[in-house]
Structure formats: structure tokens, C-alpha cells
């Protein structure tokens, strides 16, 4: 999928010679003549939005990236604004062609300053975590963590500079569900992934005591055992709220000295596991930040690292670009099976996958889920797809993998971190603000405007790709450098603002009774 084929007019971008739409680099006024394209703009076109290059009859496909992004719901003339008012979804065949585009991938060497745990796992951060088995213990967990917040009680961790913090990751589930059902299984798998995450030096699990998600069953079903680094207790067992808060504070205090003993050391980038996210996407996402991140992913994979592409509804209509890179038919079919699950799920819930583009996405120029998906898969670069995982499943393979998650960023990233991601790379065109403790999150702006307007939240500007002042390759190299730098301990913008605790959102699926 060619990403940028230079248009003859600097006001617009042609992404592929097969396209019948152009992308506006800047707001285009009605009546503007694009001489190089032999088109007159028929309506005002906002920056990042599309205009037709030729007349497209009703029912005919519209193409961007050389791929179908929708069908004309009415006749569209050359120069017309192409968007939700004249574009609709439609069925069309996709050639999955399993594995035809796999390629040999030369290796390279890269390092970062990591924290090596006693069992050999490598961390990018050093937190103490507090998890909850149920929503009922959330207030207690937060109170324990707040006691150690540096912005509230700076003295609490003053003697422990190597500890990044104490974080409480709470949720709204854990009871009134089928004890053997899918919903509880997903929650338990997610909690277990966090309980053993290398970015936690130790973890407390706090429950109420009478919830469906009994801590003993949680540990047993997930193959976990209580230890000095994994401790659990309940409010009912301790004897009340204030007593449990005091007990939790004392438990954390007893963990601080050992947790502070860590030292960073050079480790191979093969220990880096990066979750790929895009949120608040716009018409530039698939042109700038996403392909630049994809270039960084190729560099990461070449160095032996792992990248997790997710958000299954947001690859819908573009999944064939991934199956063609699957290392085996089995891997490709696993991905298609997840697409079919989502089609069935939406049908059962009386929903549509095309509901996914948000109001902000549409305001930024994205019209259909097909268009959004084609831009989203660019985050995966050109590396081979080596495996497909269920939500929050432990990622064992190295290279580019896919994890089935919803498109909602906090839910998706929560699954990735549960699967082992120790860094999140997040592209945004509208200015999403997000963090993901215990994994640092890097924000990549798709356009100059959002980077300049929201610099306090953005780590990397990819807007120069659209105006030609930089390239996908240059930004990709820079993003990879930033991955290594932040994995080595440099704080991302979201960490500086304290994001991360509230963004723990396990996928809730199924009935609550």
C-alpha cells in the first residue's frame, strides 16, 4: 500500500495513483482551481478532508491508499467534498491471500537501559501495584496508593528514588456475573497479566470478601500463587475500611526497601514490547504518524522486539493487508476468525462496525471505518504477522503480533499491557490525552496544529510528513529512538501529568445480573 504519491499541487495529497480522492493539506476555499489536477473545488474543504478527482456515480467505490473506503451514496462530481453526506458502506470481496507478502527480515542491534528482574524478565518501569478483585474495594485501594503519591505526600517515597510510584488500578466489575462465564474469565486474565507484569516490583490484590471474583479462585484459575511479591487480603477479612487501608499502607511500606534495590542496565531491544494505539484519529493519521510509527515498528522488529497491533474493529476492511503478511495460513485464519466474531457480535447487539468512527474522527476527515482501518494498519509497518492473540492473553512470540481488542483506547491498551506490553505508542490527530501505568505511553501527533496547540501532551510531531519538511523514514527513526529513550527511564508527557491510574479499563463483555 503506497502511502504518499506526490500530487502536482501543494494544496492536496494524492496517496496512490489508483485513488479517486485527494486529501486537503490545508483548508480549500470554494472555487479554488487546482491546475495540476485539473479540478475546481466545488465546496469548501476542511484540512485533512477529501475531494473527488473525477465524477463517481452512485454505488461506485471510492478509493484512498488504492483501497476501497466506501461507496458513493449519490453521484459525486470532480471537486466535490467527499464525506459522510455522500459516502456509504457496502459489501465487497477481500483477497486474504494468506502469506503472499511475507518477506525475509534482516536483523539489527539496539539497546535500552532496562530493569532486569530476578527471573530474567525486563521492565521499563518500577512500580508497586495495587489491584482490586471487585469494584467494592476500589476506594480502599485508592486510599492506600494515595498515601504514597509524591504530589500529596512527597516524604512517603523520599528515600526510594528508584521506585516510580505506587498505583491503584481499579475497575467497575468483579461481581454479579456468571462465575464460569466469559466476562469473569476476561477480567481474571487481565488482572493476572498485570499481577505478573515486569513493570511491577510487587503487587497487592485487595478484595471485599463476598464478591463473585474470589481472590483465591482468581489466583488458582490463573496459575498464580501468593508470595512476598504478590499479596492479597480483603476488607471483610481485615475487619473494615480504615483497618484495611492501614494494613495496605503497612504492606506497601514493607515492600519499599527491596523494590528500591533495582538498577538499570543495558539490555537488548528484544525485551521491548510495544502496544500500538491510535485515538482521536484524523485525516492525516494514515498519512503521517501511523506510517511513521510503522517504520519504527519495522526497526523494533528488526532488533528482535515485539509490537502488538490491536483494536479489531479498527482494522475491519483492511484485515486482508495483514493476512497477506501472515507467516502461515493458520495465523491468517486466526485473524479472520476474530473479524467474523466481531461481525457476529455487532449483529447480535444490533450495532454496526461502521459506528466506530467517532464524532472527532469525522470532524478530522475520516468518513467510514474502512478508511479509518486502512490508516490504522499502517502502524504495523511492513513486518510479517507472526501470531494472533485473544484479549489480555500473554504474548509469547517476538515480532509483529495482533491482539483482539475493542477499538476503545483504554480498553484496548489495558489488554495489551496485560499481555506484556511495557511501552505504549499512541498516535493522535485530535489531541488525545492518555497514559497507561505501569507502562509509559508515547504520544505522536499527526499534524503540526495539534502538536503546537497541545505540546504539553505530545511527545513527537509527525506533521512535517504532510508538508514535506520531513519523511516517514526520518520520523520512524526518531520514534524508535524515543521508544528506547523512554523505555530507559525518561518520562513521557503523560507520565509527567500523572496519567495512568484512571485509564485501567478491562473489557467488560456479557450480562451483569
Automatic annotation (TrEMBL):
It comes from the Bacteria. It holds the Pfam family SAF. Residues 19-88 form the SAF domain. This is Altronate dehydratase. Belongs to the UxaA family. Keywords: Lyase. InterPro entries: GD_AH_C (IPR048332), GD_AH_second (IPR007392), SAF (IPR013974), SAF_UxaA/GarD (IPR044144), UxaA_altronate/galactarate_dh (IPR052172). The keyword Transport does not apply. GO terms for molecular function: lyase activity. One of its GO terms (biological process) is D-galacturonate catabolic process. The keyword Protein biosynthesis does not apply. Signal peptide: none annotated.
Amino acid at each position: 500500500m503506497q502511502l504518499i504519491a506526490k500530487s502536482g499541487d501543494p494544496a492536496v495529497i494524492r496517496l496512490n495513483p489508483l485513488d479517486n480522492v485527494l486529501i486537503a493539506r490545508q483548508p480549500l476555499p470554494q472555487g479554488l482551481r487546482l491546475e495540476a489536477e485539473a479540478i475546481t473545488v466545488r465546496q469548501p474543504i476542511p484540512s485533512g478532508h477529501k475531494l473527488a478527482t473525477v465524477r463517481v456515480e452512485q454505488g461506485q467505490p471510492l478509493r484512498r491508499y488504492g483501497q476501497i473506503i466506501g461507496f458513493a451514496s449519490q453521484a459525486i462530481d470532480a471537486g466535490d467534498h467527499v464525506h459522510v453526506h455522500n459516502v456509504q458502506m457496502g459489501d465487497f470481496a477481500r483477497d486474504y491471500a494468506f502469506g503472499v507478502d511475507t518477506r525475509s527480515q534482516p536483523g539489527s542491534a539496539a539497546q535500552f537501559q532496562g530493569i532486569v528482574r530476578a527471573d530474567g524478565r525486563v521492565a521499563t518501569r518500577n512500580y508497586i501495584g495495587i489491584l482490586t478483585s471487585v469494584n467494592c474495594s476500589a476506594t480502599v485501594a485508592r486510599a492506600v496508593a494515595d498515601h504514597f503519591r509524591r504530589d500529596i505526600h512527597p516524604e512517603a517515597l523520599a528515600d526510594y528514588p528508584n521506585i516510580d510510584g505506587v498505583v491503584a488500578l481499579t475497575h467497575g466489575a468483579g461481581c454479579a456475573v456468571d462465575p464460569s462465564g466469559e466476562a469473569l474469565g476476561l477480567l481474571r486474565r487481565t488482572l493476572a497479566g498485570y499481577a505478573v507484569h515486569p513493570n511491577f516490583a510487587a503487587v497487592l490484590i485487595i478484595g471485599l470478601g463476598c464478591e463473585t471474583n474470589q481472590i483465591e479462585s482468581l489466583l488458582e484459575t490463573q496459575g498464580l500463587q501468593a508470595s512476598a511479591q504478590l499479596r492479597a487480603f480483603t476488607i471483610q477479612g481485615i475487619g473494615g475500611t480504615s483497618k484495611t487501608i492501614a494494613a495496605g499502607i503497612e504492606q506497601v511500606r514493607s515492600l519499599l526497601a527491596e523494590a528500591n534495590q533495582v538498577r538499570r542496565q543495558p539490555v537488548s531491544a528484544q525485551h521491548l514490547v510495544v502496544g500500538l494505539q491510535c485515538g482521536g484519529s484524523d485525516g492525516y493519521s494514515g498519512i503521517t504518524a501511523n506510517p511513521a510509527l510503522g517504520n519504527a515498528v519495522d526497526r523494533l522488529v528488526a532488533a528482535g522486539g515485539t509490537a502488538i497491533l490491536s483494536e479489531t474493529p479498527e482494522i475491519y476492511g483492511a484485515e486482508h493487508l495483514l493476512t497477506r503478511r501472515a507467516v502461515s495460513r493458520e495465523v491468517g485464519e486466526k485473524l479472520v476468525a476474530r473479524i467474523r466474531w466481531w461481525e457476529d457480535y455487532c449483529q447480535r447487539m444490533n450495532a454496526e462496525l461502521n459506528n466506530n468512527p467517532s464524532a472527532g474522527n469525522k470532524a478530522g476527515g475520516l468518513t467510514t471505518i474502512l478508511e479509518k482501518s486502512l490508516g490504522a494498519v499502517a502502524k504495523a509497518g511492513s513486518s510479517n504477522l507472526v501470531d494472533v492473540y485473544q484479549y489480555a492473553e500473554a504474548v509469547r512470540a517476538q515480532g509483529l503480533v495482533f491482539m483482539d481488542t475493542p477499538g476503545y483506547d483504554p480498553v484496548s491498551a489495558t489488554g495489551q499491557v496485560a499481555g506484556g506490553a511495557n511501552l505504549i505508542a499512541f498516535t493522535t490527530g485530535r489531541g488525545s490525552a492518555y497514559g497507561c501505568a505501569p507502562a509509559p505511553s508515547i504520544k505522536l501527533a499527526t499534524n503540526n496544529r495539534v502538536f503546537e496547540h497541545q505540546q504539553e501532551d505530545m511527545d513527537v510531531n509527525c506533521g512535517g510528513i504532510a508538508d514535506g519538511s520531513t519523511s516517514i523514514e526520518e520520523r520512524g527513526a526518531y520514534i524508535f529512538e524515543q521508544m528506547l529513550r523512554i523505555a530507559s527511564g525518561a518520562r513521557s508527557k503523560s507520565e509527567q501529568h500523572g496519567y495512568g491510574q484512571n485509564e485501567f479499563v478491562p473489557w467488560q463483555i456479557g450480562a451483569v445480573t
